Amino acid sequence: MRRRARVSLIGEVTGLSRSKAQAYFELRDAEGAVPCAIWLNELEKLDLPEEGLRDGFEVVIDGGPDYYPGNAQASPSFFFRATRIRLAGEGDLLARLEALRKQLRSEGLFELQKQLARPRLPKTIGVVTAESGAARRDLLAGLRRRGWAGTVIWAFAPVQDRRAAPAIGAAIQELAATPAVEAIVVTRGGGSLADLWAFCDETLCRTVAMLRVPVISAVGHERDSTLIDDVAAVACSTPTHAAEAVAPLDCLAARSALTRSAAALRRAGEGAAGTRSRRLVALARGPARALRRERIALNQKTREVRASSARGLAERRAFQRRLASVALSRAARRAAGAEADSRREALRRAEVAFRAHEPERTLERGYALAEDPAGEPVTSATAAIAAGRVRLRFADGRVGAEIDKDRSEA
Amino acid sequence: MSEKPESYEAAVERLEQIIDRLDSGQAGLRETLELCREGRELVTYCSAELDAVSEGLKELRLDELAARLESPQP
Lengths: 410, 74
Description:
The complex is a heterodimer. Chain A contains eleven helices and 13 strands. Chain A is of the alpha/beta class. Chain A has four domains: about 5-90, CATH 2.40.50.140; about 95-250, Succinyl-CoA synthetase domains (Rossmann fold, 3-Layer(aba) Sandwich), CATH 3.40.50; about 260-285; about 355-405, no CATH class. In chain A, helix 3 crosses helix 7 and helix 4 runs parallel beside helix 5 (about 200-210). Chain B contains three helices and one strand. Chain B is rod-shaped.
């Protein structure tokens, strides 16, 4: 069996103990553990830190299966015989981290926290961090800068060694079970990937992913990327950024905005009532104004009508007066005989005119009038020729006359 | 608003809607007065929420809280 293939395993050293000849430990990862042993003389030859092999170290061990047959006091057992141990390097850890990351992403665990609603103004927040450390101070300072002065519930936990991941996981779960806690911050300062390895713990990350309270992670510095950053609702590069993420609302700015909103509402309320009441008053005045205008116009008309009827009466009276005076003067003239004289004079003038047109006046001037035998005037040569014989009437009497048609002239 | 807002952010969102509507000048008198009343209630709510995180930062320890809960009540 000892000739079987040599393999390399990676994991965390736990339960380290030593006998006279060997060191025993378990190499553990998220899925389980393998019992291991190494000869002390081989261990001492290895390039390990000064303090030697310690619990919590992430190591890569080379070796293969081995068998202990047991004795009167000890049971037989299978175990992994390590022939070489080295601390896991960045590359080993990164390879493990990538495998885990791929696994959790494929299970959709990166999305769960990101779908949770994060309160903009939490009254109580939970924080998991080391009791002593700059992260605690920086987070508080960040919260104060935003004017946030609610309640912080601290859950202190080791943030770097093999106890860290289970302690952080337990603290997060306890905070999440506290009803007042609306969001949880997990934070620690920067370090190597090995220092931050607790925050890549699969169990811890699965716990965070399944929580119904949003978790904000701020582990390490900007370039450090731990698995808890992937599963958290928000990953921040520093505790200060975590303060901004857990209390997104700047309380001082929010207070100013609220004051402005209150003023806008007051203006709108007063303005709406004021403007409308002024319009109503104006509308109410409208009919009254129109009535007054009509009344004034009516009064004017009445005055005009009165004036005009007074004028009419006066004119009529004047006319009547004129009529009366004409009648009176006529009566007076009649009474004086003046009108009789004028009529007589007119009659005389008519008589003179009429007489001027009488035939006798013409005959008196030497003219003669031809008459047929019946006494009717003959007024043309043709009628005279036709008559043959006429009587000529002179002013002093009539004489007969023969018409000589042969000597007639046209 | 007869019911308490769902959250501070919901209250602020509704308040912004109300002010936009009022600023548009399209709300009639009855609506305006109703919006102003609702807005004042939202301002009161938001103000109380801000007050709740303005009275001085309080720090508690989870282990002490847990111990207090576990100890028998006097």
